[in-house]
Amino acid sequence: MSGTQTFTTQTGTFSYSISEGENGETIYDLSRVFQDGALPVGAIVIHPDYNPFPEVPGLLNVQFGKGGPERDERTDVPMLGAELEAAFIIGHQLVNPADLDVDPEGEEKESAPKVRFLRGALRAAATEVKSPSTVASKATFLAVQDLVTELVKIYRADKATAKREAKYGKHLDTQRAEVLAPQIKEVDDLIKALQLKKAQLTEKLNGYKTA
Fold first, then answer.
1. Is residue 66 within 8 Å of 45, Cβ to Cβ?
2. 156 occurs within a structural domain
3. pLDDT in tens, 119-130
4. Global pTM value
5. Which domain holds residue 48?
6. What angle is formed at CA 122 by the lines to CA 62 and CA 35, rounded to 5 degrees?
7. Is residue 51 part of a domain?
8. Euclidean distance between CA atoms 195 and 87, whole angstroms
9. CA–CA separation, 34 vs 147, rounded Å?
10. Residue 98 contacts by C-beta under 8 Å, 6 or more apart in sequence?
11. pLDDT 10s digits, 57-110
12. Within a domain: residue 54?
């Protein structure tokens, strides 16, 4: 996908452009489209689960804003809140793209499936950084859920996603190594201790045999 694309949610129409982050993240720069033109509203970043060894396979991390994992490291935090005093959506959400898969043998639903996450985990604030945050209102939650659902659909349909995910996987390999290295050291130390214990017991056993 290239250039500027658009999609429409219950909130309105958004345009977006895609770029790639340093580690293979997919960055969506968003603008809200009005009759008089488009206004930038921030960015949303999507990439595979950031956990080196995730408990649930296949999850996607949806990060609100560009930059690092901490709020103070973020820029272009998206303005998606329904209330002026809580316009900026902060933090991130782990979502399961499988939520969007429709079971052909299942009961027909009145509405299209959406990605699921807890409203209580969605935070909003008056500014990008520093200001206190609060749980997003129901109106904001529904608007963000609709938007994230559309972006996850776009992410899955993008032919470049597999290549980006492979790059992000290599980024995680470094973290996996950092997790495994001390575990290996711990096992190695245990082996040495057991070898010493075995030698001590063998020495005692040999003493009984020669007595």
1. yes
2. yes
3. 899 999 999 999
4. 0.84
5. 5-172
6. 75
7. yes
8. 62
9. 16
10. 58
11. 999 999 999 998 889 999 999 999 989 899 999 999 999 999 999 765 656 566
12. yes
